[in-house]
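chain below, 530 aa
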Amino acid sequence: MSEKKLIIVITAEQGYIRNQKTDEGFSAQNDILFGAITDTYIPLLNLFTKLSQENIPFKVGLVLSPVLCTLLSDEVVQEQYINYLDRRIALGDVELERNKDDPELLEQVRSCLSRLQKTRLDFTDHYKKNLVAAFKDFAQKDYVELIATAATYAYLPHFADLKEALNAQVDTGIRAQKNFFEESGDGFYLPYLGWANELESVIRSYNMNYTIVDTKALLFSKDCPPTGIFSPVRTNRSLVIFAKDNETPQDITDKESGFSTNGVYRNQNEDIGFSLEGAELENFLGSSKIRIQTGYKYTANDSEVYDAKKAREQVKKDALAFYNSKKSKLNKAESLMDGQDAILTCVIPAELLGQTWFEGIDWLEEVMRLVCNETNSEEKISLSLCRNNIEKQFSLPKITLYPCGESGSGYGEDLLDSSNSYMYRYVRTATERVIDLTERFPGETGLKARLLDTGAKEVLLAQSGAWPSMLHDQKLPNFAAESFKKYILSFTTVFDSLASNTVSTEWLTNIEREHSIFPWITYRVFSRKK
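prediction:
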């Protein structure tokens, strides 16, 4: 008997932002990661813990990028995060005093403060500061499928004609996955869902069995099967393809009809870090006067004081609407599947769950409970994982996918526009040069090998999609531009040092310490395959 399956895949990625200046009270750059830990990663782990303790058989796919895992495992970053929480907890005491005569706001302060205090306790005591290990534990219990992705979340179609660059991103990403989780898994997630036909042979050469593509990649192909996005297909090399649901995450984010925009939900942009006078935040800001999120947000999207009870009631309504929408889709698809399972794959960026949509984790919980608790056998859909739906890998219909992506309007143009296109010529030249260096220095050891390894690492970091994305979105654009420039200049130093046969060991040691990601990397990852 055929089944109706809902696959939920959550994607979490992060640019390599590692501020080692521990004497600073905070940095705007670190706030990107620390806000994600506070609002998404720890709440997500708490949700998994809660559901597993209640024996709710939830299933979810999870993409944790190698850069994100590196930062979450970094002891310096972990201590900085504790300091980040302590500063906000101390600010909460100040806020209690400031709002003592306003009962409504006082309740909001207490709620925010209590949440920060619990987050600190969860991070230090429950998860022992090791969130990566916690996610790994749920994967080992078969609740979570961890899906590998590219080393630095580069938009791979931009390097489609440089197979060595594709190999380097895929190889390093899979090796990082093994290092963090002891297995590479069956699937490879394409950053920004960017597909180019050149990726097929690369991904399959690393024994990856499936990937996920944007809806257009399947539906715009000349040989799209009658089952559309509701059944996996395969490429000529038998790479299994899941096409994502075209309505998600737009049903969450749409400015007019998206769940997250409802007026009763907490306004994530109204933070006291931006609304209070500077004097009121003097102790929190310290020597830096840069405004930053504090975690104390008191209003809803409709500008009223936030009402958690109303928000919770709306969460249940929106979860039911999402559930009914997907169930209806699967029911309609089932009648056209000719006995095959009807499968719907929903890809949700992690930042929507807690960061841009404060109630997002609660919504996800309600969705999972609705699916798992359905008792009507005719209406029932089930949560599933991609890896559990590839058993017919070598008998699925073959297609040639339409090259496209999810970013921008579907072709990654936001990662190569007037705000950031200058980056491409530099990273392109650096990539071509590092490939050439592997030919010129095929078997180096010692100091020269260290130099070459550093050069390969700097190129990978420069290829990251985070930098052009941050420029396009005007999210710390100066920092993104400077980070990219530093990686390019560091590689140029490596290139010039090899040309002159001289190297500053002090400079090399400092760069290795500052950019401590991928310590096991070898420059030969960029070598041409014979």
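The first strand starts at residue 4 and ends at 12. DSSP finds 18 helices and ten strands in the chain.
thats it, cya
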